[in-house]
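We close this part of the discussion by returning to an individual protein. Part of our work consisted of pairing the sequence of a single chain with a tokenised description of its backbone. What the numbers capture is local backbone geometry rather than side-chain detail. The amino acid sequence and the backbone structure tokens for this protein are reproduced below.
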Amino acid sequence: TEVNSTNVTETVTAIQSPALITVKIASPTSYSAVGQTITYNYTVTNSGNVFVSGPITVTDNITGVIQLSNSGLSPGQNVTETANYTITQADIHNGSVTNSAYATGT
């Protein structure tokens, strides 16, 4: 007679660490006239260990929302996009333009 043990199951849980790094570079790095354009280059890298689904976007407080990728990013993969900002008289009076940005994905 055949004898079977009970079925034994063991689950080992993965440690998922989703993460995005955003790098922003402005060109030129100074300005002197109204109407001059600053070009911001945004590079977003998936620095985590899981796929980050798209859309991957950057939200910048002066250039708005910039869509970088519809398809998402695999770990280690990056994507780059640009946005422009035009200098105003208020920017001349203020003496600088400071903005902030962050990336999002799912």
User: Anything to note?
Assistant: Residues 5 and 11 are 19 Å apart (CA to CA). Strands lie at 20-27, 37-46, 56-60, 64-69, 78-86, 101-104.
